[in-house]
Amino acid sequence: MKMKVLITGATGFLGKVLVRKLKEQGHDIWQSNTSKGNLFFYESLSIFNNIHFDVIFHLAAYTKAGDWCVKNSGTQWITNQLINTNILRYWKEENPQAKMVCMGTSCSYDPNLPLAEIYYEGGIPEEDLYYYAQTKKMLLTGLRALEKQFDMKWLYAIPSTLYGPGYEETDNHFIFDLVRKICNGKHEGKEVILWGDGKQKRELIHVDDFVTILLEVLHRDNEVINIGRGKEYPIRKYAQHICDIVGFDRSKIVYDINRFVGVKSKCLDISKLKEYVSDIKFTPIKTGLKSLVNWQVETSNYGG
Known about the structure:
By secondary structure, the chain is of the alpha/beta class. The chain is built from 9 helices and 12 strands.
């Protein structure tokens, strides 16, 4: 069935892939961004008032990787609370028939508890990411509140770390940072410094895989669903794969244990997802990393 879809954060890394896949399926797409339907100002959303959407995907969020969250806790809290409240208000007042699909974050989980959906709203998030994590929990609270009073429908998806070609130059999530640094190290003939001892583990899911799976579970109502691979690997392992792809000497990787590390492990429990999607196909990690490296090399114009 052809749908009318509104997407916030449509020009971001995830948003661009979602837009592409929905258009491939023949759906009609409207986009909210800083120049059109800016979520900072509720009134700017009035340009969509005469459209009866079937689904609203709320992808917009104000955050960055690394220690940015530590240094910008207040600004981040205010900004995310503002944009989340504005889109929820718009949903309730102008498009209550639409289904709201929001993105959570694995950062909201207490690192001392299993990363399963039943624990998402309990426990205490990791200290350095606490305030961003809490804005995502508040977003879920808003969904539940509107469901309770107005019987509105929603889906809350929690992705593991997304990766793939097309990321922003300023995106310093660990996998993009690894690829960028190792490619630069190869080009410049210099050693590469990585944060931490490299033993911290991370889970990756290719952004195309994530969107495909998200659309497969779109029919689920009023649920929190983890979407990841359910497997994690040490950062050293990812770095070694990238070195092999790039042709960079592994011995030139230096691990700086005095820099920001983050949590030691972060792997989602995808038991619920497996119940809903029986045959999940993931892009092999080495294949995904190779496409990532190729994109980095092509866009950086090394030697050009």
